[in-house]
Amino acid sequence: MIRYTLKCSEDHQFESWFRSAEAFETLRAGGQLSCPVCGSADVHKAMMAPRVSTARKDETGPVNVAPEAPPAASTPPQATPMEPPRPSPEEVEQAIARLRAEVEAKSDYVGVEFAKEARKIHEGEAPARPIYGEAKLDDAKALLEDGVPVVPLPFAPKRKMN
């Protein structure tokens, strides 16, 4: 799994996990990524800071490390990464409502047959069309492993909300 910091055309930043770099590119190219704040499908990778491990002390004492040279006078000080603005709960709720409306308007609900129908579409046995529904975690993992582009939705079907 790989975590990317993503950015939309409206400069909203958010993070998401992907099975691989290829999976990210496949979903992006297929227009299946969208900003959770504004719903924009124009999403790309943002600059990310690498994770760096620091030296550890062993049981006998501190690790001997050569002192760092002081920065040259012409080197500007390093900026600390800024926390991206976080949307308010109301903004998140509105974005999810817009996403739900778009999914329901532009996709066919296939219910618990989602995994079977997604596989049929992927293999050309059913007409290509956007669908949404429900799948068990193992079925969703199997779809991803087989290269079927699926993503979880941040809402439950209306019939399960009661």
Class based on secondary structure composition and strand pairing: alpha+beta
What would the principal axes of the Cα set say about the shape? globular
* Number of continuous helical runs: 4
- Measure the end-to-end span: 34 Å
Number of strands: 5
The percent range for strand residues is 5-15%
Major sheet characteristics: 3 strands, antiparallel
Strand order of the largest sheet: 2-1-3
Rounded mean pLDDT is: 80
Helix coverage percent of residues? 25-40%
User: What are the low-pLDDT stretches, counting only 5+ consecutive residues below 50?
Assistant: 61-77
Regarding quaternary structure, what we see is: single chain
Order of helices and strands: EEHEHEHEH
- What is the CA-atom radius of gyration, in angstroms? 22 Å
Provide structural commentary.
By secondary structure, the protein is an alpha+beta fold. A 3-stranded antiparallel sheet has the order 2-1-3. A two-stranded parallel sheet has the order 4-5. The protein contains 4 helices and 5 strands, in the order E-E-H-E-H-E-H-E-H. It is 28% helix and 14% strand. It is globular and about 45 Å long.
Features:
single chain, 162 residues, alpha+beta, three-stranded antiparallel β-sheet, 14% strand, globular
Outline of this structure?
The protein is an alpha+beta fold.
Q: What's the arrangement of secondary structure elements?
A:
Elements: E1 2-8, E2 13-18, H1 21-29, E3 43-45, H2 89-106, E4 108-111, H3 114-122, E5 131-133, H4 137-145
Parallel strand pairs: 4-5
Antiparallel strand pairs: 1-2, 1-3
